[in-house]
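From the shared-data thread, chain only:
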Amino acid sequence: MTAESLSDLGLRLLAPARFTAQSLADILDRSGLVITCGPGGVGKTTTAAALGIAAANRGRKVLVITVDPARRLADALGIKDGGKSYEPHRVRGIGENGGSFSAVMLDAEATFDRMIIERTDDPAKSARILSNRVYRSIAGSLAGAQDYMAIERLHQLHSSNRYDLLVVDTPPSRDAIDLLEAPDRLVRFLGHPIYRALTMSQRSFARVTNAGTSAFLWIVRKLAGPALVEDTVEFFRSLAGIEDGMRQRASEVAALFRQTDTALVMVSSPRAEAVSESAFLANAVVERGLCLRAIVVNMIHPLPPELDGLDEVVAGSLADHVDFHRQLRELALSERHEMIALTTIAGDAMTVIEIPLLEVDVHDLDQLTNIAVRLITLGSS
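Structure, as tokens:
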């Protein structure tokens, strides 16, 4: 893929000229927040964990926050039950010169519950919210709740000053954009006229709603039942006491995402579809004012030497080996051709790290540490 073919896909080259490329070691040493994003199936979560290990071994106190780690990765880190808990899990044996490594999988429902309990002064009020049917549905399954609670938990962990570096592993593909936009979206929601109307006192609500609104609520009550409507209105009104804090924390996380010491790391593979998706995401995050600092390309096939003329002089089983060699070379050349799009986007402003295809899947700390060493070594060349 070339720069011209990028243009054909409607993608622009938006490498931020105000930055110069840093080594990956410098990025890990100087950043307070590193965010990995990219398509699914390219080793993004493994890369996030390896980045955390690399930073911990350079003396930093690191926490990796992931949405959905692969089972083998959770096992490699010694995290029980997939790590889905409120408190981070300290992984022993990682970290030098005072460094440490911890990991946690985001539990949106537990984070939501904890926020309600901690931000509500009245225990009786928090109990009513937690038992509200609408709240229970939203906390567990509402689209976007995971993103909003990621904001809340990220703010808590960043403000705790327990860690030098947070590494956030975002959901695959374009869902990462939803997570990165969630702080701004939450601020807009809390200021929306409909939300403001729902959180008014009952007397004020009755005074400002018109006949059309009353007719609408009557229809909803007939379809969904009056209890559900009352639960919904009561839920939104119950947030009135904590919305200022939610808005402030969301604004602070939005600003954190755009700080110059926050680094985004794009993770891809050399496959055409992954490169195309990564190019789209790279442009999207830069358009939103975030600092894309590095691109990691995983699972690159080795490039075998060219075997001129052997196709005509070999036969039998040896011919099969030669044919396999030729196909592998074509695949490797095709991957390098696709990667031109990513190196073009990176320009002089980003570091590009190419990780060769490993012979085995990553399933223990030794292999994760090996990837961490590779990242630092290749990210400095």
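The radius of gyration is 25 Å.
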